[in-house]
Design a protein that fits this description.
single chain; about 120 residues; alpha+beta; three-stranded antiparallel β-sheet; 3 strands; about 40% helix; about 30% strand; flat
């Protein structure tokens, strides 16, 4: 296996905390609907660690946090930047010869198109 796959496997072992997000519209829609778009993050702690051969797990702890729109935006930009860095590294360190740049191109086009459509 490649080194990145080994690192991913190591990071995803012995996991027992999971979370999911749900968007909530607080206040009126107004001119900018994103200014009132909050995120409710629910964290679940389970009694066993993954990976596991069990089909179900008991939830030991549950907590909810409301994230302001600016915090949500910062997290989204940070995640997209990390994803883009990973794709760029895979292109940069690809073996010599024909390099597949489709994933990098699609990522960049998606980011640019979204910014142009949103007039930013």
């Amino acid at each position: 296996p490649r080194e990145s796959e080994v690192i991913k496997n190591h990071k995803n072992r012995d996991v027992n905390v999971f979370f999911y997000n749900k968007t909530i519209q607080k206040g009126g829609k107004g001119d900018n609907e994103y200014a009132n778009l909050w995120v409710q993050r629910t964290s679940l702690k389970i009694g066993i660690c993954f990976p596991s051969n069990r089909r179900r797990a008991h939830v030991v702890d549950r907590s909810q946090v409301s994230l302001r729109p600016i915090v949500n935006a910062i997290e989204a930009v940070t995640l997209k930047t990390q994803e883009l860095e990973g794709v760029a590294k895979s292109v940069k360190y690809a073996p010599p010869g024909d390099v597949d740049v489709n994933s990098l191109s699609m990522n960049l086009n998606g980011m640019i198109d979204a910014a142009v459509s949103g007039r930013y």
